[in-house]
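hey so u asked for the seq, here:
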Amino acid sequence: MYKIIKKRILAENIVEFVIDAPAVTLNAKPGQFIILRVDGDGERVPFTICDMDKEKGTVTILVQTVGYSTKLLAQKSEGETIRDFVGPLGRPTDLTEFKKTVMVGGGIGAAVIYPQAKFLKSIGKPADVIVGARNKSLIMYETEFKAAARNLYIATDDGSYGRKGFVTDVLKEVLDNARYDAVFAVGPMPMMRAVCELTKQYGVHTVVSMNATMVDGTGMCGGCRVSVGGKALYACVHGPEFDGHLIDWDTAINRSGNYREQEAAHLCKLKVNG
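ran it, structure tokens below
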């Protein structure tokens, strides 16, 4: 069992958990993820490690309540436990070879780019960061990014905070005014595809994090299969980061919606029973 040390509501349907998991923190690096089960009957769900404290032995994850398991997890309180918490899984992200990087986080994708921004700042290569969401209430980690980023740009779809528009609008302006070695983008797949279409015009290397459906985290189930450069790769063992210009986005986006009907049905049962 893994104890919930801290729970914090960051926005509507978005909860931050700090979990006591010293064995995970031992070898964890930015860009890796964990797979958890809320209880003995639960499904295995992956979450990016958005922060860690090796001295305290804690791992921070961000949970967006979009289905049955995430809703069940969000109902947990501080002091309660999670049945399984396995990791670190996946390959760490390594952006150290690039001199100047801009990171783009859409919605909950901010949780993935934050540890990268924090790490690059620690080695003297702070990145520029663009964070976007539908409205002001969904902007996350603003204070943390201000401390870690060289420059922070905020965009909201409705203009309630920062620049009105999409992250791609801000990214275009940034790319027009400075030269970058790499772009790291994380968020909804349509957003990442739009970022890649833009950066390809500028010839800027672009890395994306593929939040594909996962079951075992070892590449055995094939649920997280991604077509990269015409090859079938698996996000859990070959990623989760890939060259965004090589992703078959149409296939990836279609596969991401395979289980929406089942999730909706189980979520309805949880609401009724809860």
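The chain has a mean pLDDT of 88. The radius of gyration is 18 Å.
lmk if thats what u needed
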